[in-house]
Specification:
The structure is a homodimer of 765-residue chains. The first copy, chain A, has 765 residues and is of the alpha+beta class. Chain A is built from 19 helices and 37 strands.
C-alpha cells in the first residue's frame, strides 16, 4: 500500500463545518507524520516544544553524497531519519533536525530486539540480517510528544515520549530469555567513514550508563553527552568495536567486550541483555547534555524523577497545548485546522534548547559557558528562518525569541570570527547558505521592541558581522558594492542578501538613534542596484571589470550567480525597497505582467531537475515556494496597483503547497520557515521585510483567530463572509477603524484589538 | 665526539674534599642531563618541582613498536623525547614523563625557524629536509628550570623556563624577513597513525592562540588544552593539514589554510610568520590545562603576568632550591653531591600537578571536577613508586603525598571500576604493570600518620580495589590463593605482589582498629607460600590443578610467570615476611650463600637480551637494579646473621648504578623510583616494606645530612669515620642512644634528632 492511499483525507467529513479550537485539545489537529514523505524532511517522533531531545524512528541513513561524490536528490532523502514509504525501522535516535536539507544528527540509536543478538543494522531489503525490524503504518501512532510502533520482527511494542532534555522509551516485550537493547553509538544520519571521531561509554551500575560521542560532520566538531537509565537491571552487557584500536597496551589483560564497565573507541555499539516475561515493559530514560555526563545525569534526575511514562507523555502534550493555544483558530474545515496546527507544531520544533538544567552549555570555543538569565538555543537555520519564523516568534514567542537572540549574541562573542551565526548547530558554525541573516533577526526584534537583550551591544554585533572581510566576498562587496562573479559563486544572490541585511542594520540603527550607522548601511543597502541589468530587466552576474557576464540563463539555478533559486525568482529579491525595484523594472505597468508570468509560465523539466530540496509540486509556474527566496514574492502585488492579486495568490499557494497529508509539504519545511509562512499568511498578514515593523496584508484563510499575546493583550483576526472562494478582501478594519493601504504595524497589533477582514469572491480593484 | 667523552668527570677536581650544601644554591649540583643517554629516559628540559609543564627538547620520536609490531629496546628509546647522542632537535614540547619505560606525551611542539617555511620535521640524517635543526652540546645548558641551546640550522638561540602550568620560551633570532614559529600539533612521543584523534585551534587575536588536542594512546582518551601568547604580534599565519577532512561543506568558501582564525582536524601543524631584527627576542608563554582553553588562559595570566623571562627562571630555580634544601647534605665529593641532588631533582619531577589555578581537573569519567582542599596530581607509576618514592615523600613531602593520595582516592571514586590507580596519567588508567600498588602507598601513609585524608574512606578504597574480581586474575587469586599460570601470564609475580599489597591493607586496618579487615588480609598476605616450590627453592608457576608448571627457567624473564624480572630475583619478593621467606628457603645458613650468589653469578647474555628497560650496567651478577622487583633485596641481609653484607652491597650498588654522567643511570629512572632508592640508601635507611613504619638501616654514603621535616623538626644523619672504603657500620646511635638491631621507626625519626653511624672499613660480624 502506497503512502498516498494513507493521506489524511478526512476533509470531507468536516466539509462546510466551522470548527472552533478547544483550549487544551489542539494537539488533536497536529499530525507529526505530515511532511514525512518525500521532501518535507519532518520527523514523526516525540518531542516537546523547542525540546533538546527529538526521539524519533530512523528508517535509514545514507551517505551525504552519492557514489560519484556528488549531491543528488536521493542523497538528501534521510535528513530527518524517517521516510514514510520505507519498510523497516533501524531504531530510535534522540536528535533530529526538522525540515532541513542536510543532516548531522541521529545521536544514540536505541533498538530493542529479541532472539539472536545482532550488532549490525542489516539492510531494508533483508532486515533479518540485522537488528532492524519491519513495521506497518497500521501499527503506528504519531502525536505531539508521543510515538508508538510495533516492531514486527521482534514482536516488541515501542513507545516513546520526552521532556525537554530526556527521551523516555517504553518497550513491551514478549516472553524471552534472549531480549536485548542495542545502543548504537555509531549510528548517525548522514553517516560516513570517520564521521564519528570518538566515543566513550561507562557502565556506572546495572541500571545507569553514561558516555559521549564526538562527530566531525556538518558541525566540524560536535560532542553530545548522555546518561541513560533502565527501569530494570541489566543482566549482562557487551560491546562491538568496528574499528581496530591503534593501541591496546595493558587493556589486553581484560576481555573488554563483555561485562567490562568502560569502552572507548571510534566506532562502538553496546548491547544490554535481559530476560523478559510476556508483556513486560522495559523503560529507558535517556538524557542529553552539550556539556558533560554529569549534567546529563542531572538533567535526567531533575526532569524525569519518576518512571511514569503516561504522566511524562501527558505533561509534554500539555506543554504543546499551551503553546498551540497561543493562537486559537476557527477554520473552514478540519484539513485547514490540521494544516494550521501542524504548521504551528513545526514552528515550535526549533531552534532547540541547548543548555542544561544548570544553565551550562558548550560554546563555539568548545568551552563551557553558563547562560545567565536566558535559555540557550541552537540550530539556527537563518537563511531560512529570518524571513518569517523569527518574525512569527516576535508575535507569539517574544521572550523565547529574545533568548534566541541572546544565544546568537553569545555565539558571536564566542566565535573566532566574531560573527553572528550563519547556520549554527551544537556549538558550531557550519556556514551553510549565504548572507548574514542573523542581522535581520536582531534588527527585527529591536525595531519591534522585543525586550530582554542589550540593543546597543546587539547592534555592534551586527556591524561587526557585516565587516568580516574574509567572509564570502564581503571584502569585494564593501569595496565595489557587489561581488564580482569571476571571483565567487552565487555572486548575485549574495550581493542581494547582503544589501537586504544591511538595510535591516540601518533600520535598527535608526531606532537607536545611531545616525552614522544608519547612513553607512542605508547606503550599502542600495547595492542591489549594482547587480541589476536594466537592459534585460533581471539581476545579473557582474564581473570584476564592471561588465555583466555574457553567458547567462535566467531559469537555471546552477552556476548563474544565485543560490537555491534562478535569476528570474531572485531578481525580485529586494524586500527592503520593493518600490525602487519596481521602478527599476519599468514601473507598475511593465512589472505587473512580468510578475503575473512568474506564476503562469511553464518551467521546463530540465530546470526543475536541478532545483534543490523541493518536489515538482513545490513549484507553481516558475514560482518556487519550496525554496525560500520567493517567500515574499506573492506580497509584491501589494506594492503595485493590483494588491488583490496578492490575496488571490497567497490563498492559492496555501492550498497548493500545504496539504494535510503525509506528503503534504512540497519542499523542506526548513526548521519551520515554510510553516511560519503558512501561519502568517493564513492569518492575513505577513512580515514582508524583517527589520520593519510593517506587515503586508494578504487574505486570511482562517475564519477567526484569537492570538494571546505575551503582553497580556489579545489580538483577534476575524473574517466576514469567509469561504474558499471568497479570497478577496474588500475592506479591513482594526478596532472598527478602516485600515488604509495594504499594511499594518506590529506595534498597533500587539496593543490588542480586532482585525476584521471583509471577504469577497471578487477583487476590489 | 661520543657522549661518553662528555661524561661529567669532575670528580677528580673535588676528590677528598668535603662539600657542604649551601642553602639556596643546591641547584648547582643538579645536572638534568644525567640519565639522558641510553636507558635513563630522563629529559633535560625546564620544569619546576612537580610542574604540570615539562618543556624540553625532543630529538626524535618513533613508533611504539618496531616494524615487526614487537617491542624492542630501540622502540623504547624516546620515552623522554631526548637522547643525548642524537644530532638534531625537532623542537620543544611541553609534556614529558621522567624515566618511564613507555611514553604518551610530547604535546604541542614549538620550533622556531628561519628561511623557507617547512612544515615537516625532516629526518635526523637530513635535517635540511624539515624544520628540525642540528645542535651541539657545546651550545647547550641544562639547569633546573632552564634549558638553552643554539639551533644551528636556523641561527636561533632557544631558551626555556617554566612555572607550574606555563612553559616560557625565548628565541633570539637573526635578522630575517622569513622568521617562523611552528606549532606542531601532530607531534607526539610514541606517535603513530591515528594516535591523534582530534585537534582544535583558534587564533583569538594576533598574539593569542588557544586549542586542544586529543590522543588515543597509552591513555585511551586524553585531552590537553592550551593557551599560548606571543610577545610580538603575528604577521600572518597558516596551517597544514595531514589528513583529508571527511567533510568540508560550506567551509569550502574560505581559504582555511591561510589567516583563517580556526582550524579543526585530526592532524594539524600551524605556523606563525614574523619579521625579525638581528638579536630580536620573540617570547612565548604556553599554558596547559586538563580542562579547557579558558582555564589554560587563566593559568597563563595568573602564573605569568609578565614577560620577564629571567625573573620567571629565577623564581622557578628558587622553588627548586627550597625543595632541595629539605635535605642539606655534606658528601665525600662533588660527584656524590651531584648524584644526591640530581636524584632529589628526579624524585621531585613527579607525580605532576593536574589541576588548574581554579582547582578544576578532568576526572576518569572525563567530567570536570574540582579539587577542594588539595592539589590534584597525575602520572602515578605505582608499580615503581610505591616502593621508595612515596615513602620518601612521607619523609620530606608529607603534605604533597597526602594530596597525591587524595588524588588517587578521587581517581578511585571516578573510576568505572572503583579501583585505585594502577598506572594512571591524564585522567586515564592505562593498567600498566601489575598489582594494586596504590594500596601500599595509602597504607604506608596511614601507618606513618600522614595527615590530610580520611583514613577510613581510604581503607575502604583499598579493600574495594583488592576485590575487583575481573582485574588480572584477582578472582582466582581470591578463590584459590594464587593465580593459575595456565590462565594468565605473570601469574607468580602478580600473586606475590597481591600478597604484599594485601599485607599493607592488613597493616592499615590494624592501625585503624579494623580487626575484621586485618584478619582477612593478613590471611591473603600469606598467599606467597602458594607459589613457592620448596623442592627447588624458588617461586614457581602453579597450574589450575594445583601442580607446579614443569617447564620452567629461573633466569629467563619471559613467559615464566614473572613481569620485569626472572624467577631468581622475584623469588625474593616477600618484603612483608622476609623471615618467613628465609625459613621457607631453608633458613639462614642455606639462604645466605643463595643470596650471595645473586650478586656474584654471571647472567648469560641470552637472558639479558630480554631484560627490559635497562642496560647491561644495570645488572650486577643476576641482581637487576635497573628494574624494581629487587630494590629491597640488598636489605635482605639485615634479616640474616650477616647484616654487614647489606652495608657492603648497598654502597657497591650506589657506586655502580648511579654516576654523575650523562649515561649515569643503568636503567629507567621510573618516575623517580630509582632516584628515591639512591637517596634513602645514601642516607643510611630504607623503607623495606611500605605499610610498615620501620626503616631498615644500611650504610650511609653521605658524610652528613640535615633533613628539615615539615613538622618543624630536624633529623640529622651524621657519620663518623666516613669514606668510600669505610662502608661498614659498627654502631648506630639515635640521640646518643645505641640503636638495637638493624631497624628504626619512622615515628622516632620524625620526632627529630641525630642519627649517627659509626663507619668502619671492616664488618662488625
Amino acid at each position: 500500500m502506497s503512502y498516498k492511499a494513507l493521506t489524511l483525507s478526512i476533509t470531507s467529513l468536516f466539509a462546510g463545518c466551522l470548527l472552533q479550537a478547544q483550549n487544551n485539545n489542539l494537539t488533536q489537529y497536529v499530525n507529526p507524520l505530515i511532511g514525512t514523505a518525500k521532501m518535507g524532511h519532518t520527523y514523526p517522533g516525540a518531542t516537546v516544544p523547542f525540546g533538546a531531545v527529538q526521539l524519533s524512528p530512523d528508517t535509514d541513513t545514507i551517505p551525504y553524497a552519492g557514489p560519484d561524490g556528488k549531491y543528488t536528490g536521493t542523497a538528501y532523502r534521510y535528513c530527518a531519519g524517517y521516510q514514510y514509504d520505507d519498510p523497516t525501522i533501524v531504531g530510535f535516535s534522540h536528535t533530529h533536525f526538522s525540515g532541513t536539507g542536510h543532516s548531522d544528527l541521529g545521536d544514540f540509536l536505541i533498538m530493542p530486539t529479541t532472539g539472536q543478538l545482532q550488532l549490525n543494522p542489516g539492510t531494508a531489503d533483508k532486515p533479518e540480517t540485522g537488528y532492524r525490524s519491519r513495521f506497518s503504518h497500521s501499527n503506528e501512532i504519531a502525536e505531539p510528544n508521543y510515538y508508538k510502533v510495533k516492531l514486527d520482527d521482534h514482536n516488541i511494542l515501542a513507545e516513546m515520549t520526552t521532556t525537554t532534555r530526556v527521551g523516555v522509551h517504553q518497550y513491551t516485550f514478549p516472553k524471552s530469555d534472549d531480549a536485548h537493547i542495542i545502543l548504537d553509538l555509531m549510528h548517525g544520519i548522514y553517516n560516513y567513514d570517520d564521521k564519528n571521531t570518538w566515543t566513550f561509554v561507562r557502565i556506572e551500575n546495572d541500571t545507569l550508563i553514561t558516555g559521549y560521542k564526538q562527530t566531525h560532520g556538518w558541525a566540524k566538531t560536535r560532542t553530545v553527552y548522555f546518561a541513560m537509565t533502565f527501569s530494570k537491571p541489566v543482566q549482562s552487557y557487551g560491546y562491538a568495536q568496528f574499528k581496530k584500536q591503534v593501541y591496546q597496551g595493558f587493556w589486553r589483560r581484560f576481555n573488554v567486550t563483555r561485562n567490562f564497565p568502560e569502552m572507548i573507541g571510534q566506532n562502538l555499539r553496546a548491547y544490554f541483555n535481559f530476560k523478559t516475561e510476556q508483556d513486560e515493559k522495559i523503560k529507558i530514560k535517556f538524557a542529553l547534555s552539550p556539556v558533560s555526563t554529569t549534567n546529563a545525569l542531572e538533567n535526567l534526575r531533575t526532569e524525569t524523577p519518576s518512571w511514569d511514562f503516561a504522566a511524562i507523555k501527558v505533561k509534554g502534550q500539555q506543554q504543546w497545548n499551551q503553546e498551540l493555544n497561543k493562537i486559537q483558530v476557527e477554520a473552514l474545515n478540519k484539513e485547514d485546522m490540521t494544516n494550521f496546527y501542524t504548521a504551528m507544531y513545526h514552528t515550535f520544533l526549533g531552534p532547540t534548547v541547548y543548555s542544561d538544567m544548570n544553565g551550562q552549555y558548550k560554546g563555539l570555543d568548545q568551552n563551557i559557558h553558563t547562560a545567565n538569565n536566558f535559555t540557550n538555543y541552537t540550530t539556527f537555520s537563518l537563511w531560512d528562518t529570518y524571513r518569517t519564523l523569527h518574525p512569527f516568534f516576535n508575535l507569539v514567542q517574544p521572550q523565547r525569541n529574545s533568548h534566541m537572540i541572546q544565544s546568537m549574541l553569545a555565539h558571536q562573542q564566542q566565535s573566532a570570527h566574531k560573527m553572528l551565526p550563519v547556520w549554527s548547530h551544537y556549538a558550531n558554525e557550519n556556514w551553510c547558505m549565504s548572507g548574514y541573516h542573523a542581522v535581520p533577526v536582531v534588527a527585527d526584534a529591536i525595531v519591534k521592541g522585543i525586550k530582554g537583550f542589550d540593543y546597543n551591544k546587539a547592534l555592534e554585533a551586527c556591524i561587526t558581522t557585516a565587516n568580516v572581510k574574509y567572509y564570502d566576498g564581503l571584502d569585494d562587496y564593501i569595496r565595489l558594492g557587489y561581488i564580482p562573479d569571476d571571483k565567487r559563486g552565487n555572486s548575485v544572490s549574495t550581493t542581494l542578501e547582503y544589501a537586504f541585511d544591511d538595510w535591516s542594520i540601518a533600520m535598527a540603527a535608526k531606532k537607536l538613534g545611531r545616525n552614522d550607522v544608519y547612513e553607512a548601511f542605508i547606503k550599502r543597502s542600495q547595492n542591489w542596484k549594482n547587480v541589476y541589468d536594466a537592459a534585460i530587466g533581471y539581476m545579473r552576474p557582474k564581473l570584476s571589470n564592471g561588465s555583466f557576464k555574457k553567458e547567462f540563463d535566467i531559469l537555471s539555478t546552477h552556476g548563474q550567480g544565485f543560490i537555491e533559486g534562478n535569476a528570474w525568482n531572485f531578481s525580485l529579491f529586494v524586500p527592503h525597497d520593493p518600490k525602487g525595484m519596481i521602478d527599476a523594472m519599468g514601473g507598475d505597468k511593465k512589472f505587473l505582467p512580468h510578475l503575473d508570468s512568474l506564476f503562469s509560465m511553464h518551467l521546463p523539466d530540465e530546470f526543475f531537475a536541478h532545483t534543490e530540496d523541493i518536489t515538482r509540486e513545490g513549484i507553481i509556474g516558475n514560482y518556487v515556494h519550496g525554496n525560500e527566496p520567493s517567500h515574499h514574492v506573492a506580497y509584491l502585488y501589494n506594492f503595485t496597483s493590483q494588491p488583490w492579486k496578492t490575496q488571490e495568490r497567497v490563498r492559492m499557494i496555501l492550498k497548493k503547497q500545504y496539504k494535510a497529508a503525509i506528503d503534504g509539504l512540497g519542499g523542506n519545511d526548513d526548521c519551520g520557515q515554510m510553516s511560519a509562512w503558512y501561519i502568517f499568511t493564513a492569518l492575513g498578514f505577513y512580515p514582508f521585510a524583517p527589520g520593519s515593523e510593517t506587515y503586508q496584508l494578504g487574505s486570511p484563510a482562517i475564519k477567526k483567530a484569537v492570538i494571546h499575546l505575551e503582553n497580556g493583550n489579545t489580538l483577534t483576526v476575524d473574517t466576514r463572509n469567509q469561504s474558499d472562494k471568497n479570497v478577496y478582501v474588500s475592506k479591513v478594519t482594526f478596532n472598527g477603524i478602516p485600515v488604509k493601504g495594504t499594511a499594518i504595524d506590529h506595534s498597533k497589533l500587539i496593543a490588542g484589538g480586532e482585525l476584521v477582514f471583509y471577504m469577497s469572491s471578487k477583487p476590489t480593484k
